[in-house]
Design a protein that fits this description.
- The chain is an alpha/beta fold and 432 residues long.
- Among the domains are: 37-143 and 311-375, 3-Layer(aba) Sandwich (D-Maltodextrin-Binding Protein, domain 2); 148-195 and 245-306, D-Maltodextrin-Binding Protein, domain 2.
- The chain has 19 helices and 13 strands.
- The chain has helices at 3-35, 49-62, 78-87, 99-105, 124-127, 152-157, 168-180, 182-185, 198-209, 217-222, 231-244, 254-262, 277-283, 287-291, 325-337, 339-347, 366-375, 392-405, 411-430; strands spanning 37-43, 66-72, 94-97, 131-132, 135-136, 139-140, 144-146, 148-151, 189-191, 267-270, 292-295, 308-310, 314-317.
- Strands 2-1-3-13-6 form a 5-stranded mixed sheet.
- A hairpin with a 2-residue loop joins strand 4 (131-132) and strand 5 (135-136).
- Helix 2 (49-62) packs antiparallel against helix 16.
- The protein is globular, with a radius of gyration of 27 Å.
- Residues 17-22 and 25-33 have low confidence and may be disordered.
Length: 432
């Protein structure tokens, strides 16, 4: 073999080797790119968007090939923004959904989560809020409490012991005592109800519409009529709010009622739940532990009334992107089980966990501990207002109750109109 031919053979060998190496690099690069997954998470709670971003960052640090992209839209615009995502063909991988009517809208897009590891850990009274047509398609975000949030410092100045209030008569007497002392206490009024917010009107209504369904959210969702079984008690409370709340009642919005009126001690009570905790402690560290207490609405008046506990929001996983299902499930399991994730959720989001057998000593305030005890007891009562037909709160319940607050409609006509609208919306949506 002459030298020229030998050089050609060596050159061809080197060229082949180079191509092989480059091809291998390209293969590895492609493989690496394919292993990276971006999970799109649609969040409907703007107040915890920063904390979800932090959780996404923590998860990415533990799982470098998984990116969690948080999209947030809420405060009335979340439902429309989510629907627009699906219409445009950009369905998220994980979605936050409020109530069975919204879950039903996307049921055909949702995967069954019954075998998800965390599903077995959920507090029993919360599970059926994520069940649609027999499939478990939603995991509760947290455990919320609904009742009267009161300022313990104001109660103490007024000489009132909340633990002694056991029925509506005693609650009414307490309201009258505070009202009589409101100038001495530096109050604008006893209550600071945000009558301009239809969502708050709906959550108050749940105190009276939930008991007939005995924690069966599916039954409440399928009901074709609005329950007036406890209508007399409902009227008493709305009349009480109308008489003793800051006026004009329709001018009060949610944020001012919490951050201005309640936090600054201008009112003694607001009908809100533990979702106000992050706001209050954000304004003053330790405010919640020192000053925030909760009383139930006294409906039965037989000594069994307790603050209502449930979950307004559920997490679902879509099947629009099959390759992302496993990663999405792993992320949700991590949210409910990772010590790092739980630390953020409990201490920064200030959520009360929706899981069984949680060590309540880890919760940062006594109220959250009480809520967990009540929410996990056999006597827990779950609110059903998230199961009202889509649009009912904003189109009927809220507007009619607002008219009642300003004496523009009688109670009997309000009942009649609300009942008709509820039935019409349920019938239309059951046919969709």
């Amino acid at each position: 073999m002459n030298n020229k031919l030998l050089k050609i053979i060596k050159l061809m060998f080197m060229l082949s080797l180079t191509l092989f190496i480059l091809g291998g690099c390209n293969f590895n690069s492609t493989k690496k790119e394919n292993s990276e997954i971006t999970i799109n998470f649609f969040n409907q709670k703007p107040e915890i968007s920063a904390q979800y971003q932090k959780l996404a960052h923590l998860y990415h640090r533990e799982h470098p090939n998984i990116n969690i992209q948080i999209t947030t839209a809420g405060q009335g615009g979340g439902a429309a923004a989510l629907q627009a995502k699906f219409v445009s063909g950009e369905a998220p991988d994980i979605i936050m959904l409020g109530g069975l009517p919204e879950i039903g809208r996307y049921n055909n897009h949702l995967v069954d989560l019954k075998r998800l590891k965390v599903s077995k850990k959920i507090i029993p009274s919360l599970t059926n809020g994520g069940i649609y047509n027999g499939r478990m398609v939603g995991i509760p975000v947290d455990l919320e409490a609904y009742g009267w949030s009161y300022n313990k410092a104001i109660f103490a100045k007024a000489g009132i012991k909340a633990s002694k209030i056991k029925n509506y008569t005693e609650f009414l007497n307490m309201v009258k005592v505070i009202n009589a002392k409101r100038k001495k206490l530096g109050l604008n009024a006893v209550f600071g109800f945000d009558g301009g917010d239809t969502n708050s009107i709906a959550s108050v209504s749940a105190q009276f519409t939930s008991l007939p369904y005995h924690n069966n959210l599916v039954k409440a969702f399928k009901s074709s009529s609005f329950s007036w079984k406890y209508g007399k008690q409902m009227k008493k409370y709305y009349d009480l709010i109308k008489k003793y709340s800051v006026q004009p009642i329709l001018s009060i919005q949610y944020d001012p009622s919490v951050q201005n009126l309640f936090y600054n001690g201008k009112v003694a009570m607001i009908p809100q739940g533990n979702w106000i905790i992050p706001t209050l402690d954000g304004l003053q560290r330790g405010f919640v532990q020192k000053r925030l207490g909760m009383l139930p609405f006294f409906i039965k008046n037989d000594g069994t009334d307790r603050i209502m506990t449930g979950s307004s929001w559920y997490l679902g996983i879509t099947k629009d992107h099959p390759k992302k299902e496993k990663a999405s499930k792993n992320f949700i399991n991590w949210l409910y089980s990772s010590p790092k994730a739980q630390k953020v959720i409990i201490n920064e989001m200030r959520f009360v966990p929706a899981t069984k057998n949680f060590n309540i000593s880890r919760l940062p305030d006594n109220l959250s501990k009480d809520i967990y005890r009540v929410g996990t007891s056999k006597k827990a009562v779950v609110p059903i207002h998230k199961q009202y037909p889509n649009g009912f709160t904003n189109q009927a319940l809220g507007p009619y109750m607002q008219r009642y607050f300003v004496n523009d409609i009688s109670w009997n006509k309000l009942k009649r109109e609300i009942s008709i609208k509820y039935r019409q919306l349920r019938e239309v949506q059951s046919e969709e």
